[in-house]
Amino acid sequence: MKGASIWREKNCQSCHQLYGLGGYMGPDLTNIMSSKAENNARTFIKYGTGKMPNLHLNNEEVDNLVAYLSWIDKTGKSEVNDSNIHWTGSYIIK
Amino acid sequence: MRYKVYLIFSLVMLQVALLCGVLSSYSFLYPETLKNIVPFQQLRPMHVSAALFWIISAAVTSLLVHSNHIAVIKTANKRLINTAAGIWALTITVIFAYYTMNKYGGREYWEFPPWLGIPLLLSWILLMVGYGIYWLNLKNKKPLYQIMWATGILFFLLTFIEQNIWHIAWIRQSYIREVTMQWKANGSMVGAWNQMIYGTSLYMMVKMSGDKSIAENKKVYAFYFLSLSNLMFNWGHHIYNVPTASWVRHISYFISMTEWLFLISMIQSFKLKTSEYNKHKHLICYKFIIASEVWLFLNLLLAIMMSIPAINKYTHGTHITVAHAMGTTIGINTMILLGSIGYICKIDTASVKVKKAVTTGYNIAQVSLLIFWLCLVVAGLTKGYRSRVLQIKDFQTMMTPIYPFLKLFAVAGIGLLAGMGMIIYNYLKQLYSKRLHHE
């Protein structure tokens, strides 16, 4: 997947997390594409912000990165629901 | 063998890790001003890689120096090990050159272009062959540190290969599979270098106390098997919230509650056995081992909390994870390694001035590390509360009350850099001016 290569080459994990794993400069992006922030995410990826650098990605690269994040989004939820926690304190995610 | 060169290289890596860590903390806090001068996304891989290479290089060099003292490593094996060290150091230099050019391609902790993993792998295989032949010919493999050193070297190879298994397309076809493998490898790799470092800690305990039984009793052997099971199974807390098989969490939860207690018990028995004379003979080295014990205790509490899934829900993805990583790598691993290098470069026989400077550096480093660590814990608790309990979704809103703690953390980082810098500087001076302990 081309988006995965861009994620690695631009070292996105330095600042962002997937499933809570990665850097803490920016937010966890596991479910960013299914959240209300999708449009913002696309803009941030393209132009950066005050905190985030402009990665100088072209439109195709932005699309690939968005496709990669959408693919990850479908794998599950980054946050564990209370209903997934067993009374023993352990998780019961299937 | 060029032990001095490897030790100097390791200490330089530590200094680079500290410097990049401090700079990146300020870049984190003031990105609008600093993101173009010292970009966080560039400094973080430098900081992390330098820290990893410090730990691994110093762990290997320490065990080689100690091994050579126990039974001299033959010239042919030394050649292999020297070649391995040369490739290792050269590859790391190239890795930093790539980071400087903003070129990446790897993954968390190993962010350099993946082809650079090949010379690192080659280097490790050469080390394994050189050390392996030496180890197989050892007459007495009974002391546990001998077994731990060999285990660490072997498992580092296995986990390094696991770490690179994502190059197989089938692994990448499922993100859950890929991320599980990645963090399984990362967790087990920590276990691998802990085998090398705790082996060195055990060796030093024997040497400083003069009591061989410390490394040859049922309790330490039991501890070894527990730490081995920990190495293989206690990585689950990294991925508690990844929707993978539940048995991973349950095994990890169970295993993680055991190993640390054994080590504390082991170091405590060492304290009792060590005479006042020996304490003073190796006072500085002894202090580093005691510091590692204190940090072990603090990180034990944190690790237990983080390994309970219902609590991990609030701590995962917060600065508590960083506190855990920093607490173990600086507080435990680095303290033991500085104790070991101090022992090797005979720091306890240095001039009063040098010993005073190292002790001052040690005190500054301990106080700074405590503030540093507490700030991360409080920042993590605040983030966990705001994101999981208050369900604040906007990142900046969620982070705002956390920044004062991170500012204090950054100031403590300067203290840590200064304290450790004093130790490193005096160690380097000692390495230049004196023969090593085992020469």
Question: What would your notes on this structure say?
Answer:
The complex is a heterodimer of chains A (94) and B (439). Chain A is mostly helical. A two-stranded antiparallel sheet of chain A has the order 1-2. The longest helix of chain A is centred in the C-terminal third of the chain and has 15 residues. The radius of gyration of chain A is 15 Å and the shape is elongated. Chain B is mainly α and 439 residues long. Chain B has a domain of 144 residues. Helix content of chain B is 79%, strand content 0%. Chain B is built from 18 helices and no strands. Chain B is globular, with a radius of gyration of 21 Å. The model of chain B has no long low-confidence stretch (mean pLDDT 90). Classes of the chains: A mainly alpha (94), B mainly alpha (439). Chains A and B meet through helix 1, strand 1 and strand 2 of A and helix 3, helix 8, helix 10, helix 14 and helix 15 of B.
Strand and helix map with partners:
The complex is a heterodimer of chains A (94) and B (439).
Chain A lengths: L1 H8 L7 E2 L2 E2 L15 H10 L11 H15 L21
Antiparallel strand pairs in A: 1-2
Helix pairs in contact in A: 1-3, 2-3
Chain B lengths: L2 H27 L1 H4 L5 H31 L4 H26 L16 H20 L7 H20 L5 H4 L2 H35 L8 H16 L12 H11 L2 H15 L2 H6 L1 H25 L1 H7 L3 H26 L7 H38 L5 H5 L3 H31 L6
How would you sum up this structure in a few lines?
With 94 residues, chain A is mainly α.
In terms of quaternary structure, the protein is heterodimer
Rg over alpha carbons of chain A: 15 Å
Structural class of the helices, strands and pairings of chain A? Answer: mainly alpha
State the strand order across the main sheet of chain A.
1-2
Series of H and E elements of chain B: HHHHHHHHHHHHHHHHHH
Task: Categorize the overall geometry of chain B.
Answer: globular
